[in-house]
Amino acid sequence: MNFVQFQNAKKSTLAKRDKSDIGKYDDKIKKLCDKINKKKEYYTTSSCSGRIILILGEEEKKPGLFLFRTHKKIKLKELKKELKKIKSKKIIYFKQEPFILHVCCFNLDSANKLFKIAQEAGIKQKSIISLGNKIIVEIRGSEKIEFPIMKNKKILVNDNFLKILIKESNKKLEKTWKKLKTLGKLI
User: Fold this and answer.
1) Could you tell me where the beta strands, DSSP code E, fall in the chain?
2) 74 — pLDDT class (breaks 50, 70, 90)
């Protein structure tokens, strides 16, 4: 792909409506995405600043999997309120997920440059996920928690465990946001 084709693909991609469930960048990653998208050799194709979710334990992605989602820290009262709303008898997972960023790069040199910046920001997980028509780099945090929290409409853990879970999840979100901020400064 030559540079003109790359710029046309970038313009087309950034002009499209956001296909995510929330329909826009989440607030904590928007500034970084905007900064990347201003660079001539990059554009973002997907992003998330990190989140806490309650999700049905299904193998494949389909509508209705997310029962609760926030890109903010949570409190015990909020989590318990959301758990009480769940009427499914299936296994429900609690997940605290790190940030993820997919960036289309003009060439392998620009991808390598992005790898080095991510490394300098202390980010360990980075990979090239596409080398076809587009070179896509995935950068993600490593801070996460995931386990079954509910089955047959019953919470599987007690409040003491939930308090620890919330404290640790919020701490990991802070850590992932700090890495995002460092990445933004280095780009």
Assistant:
1) 42-48, 51-56, 66-70, 92-97, 100-105, 125-130, 135-140, 145-151, 154-155
2) very high
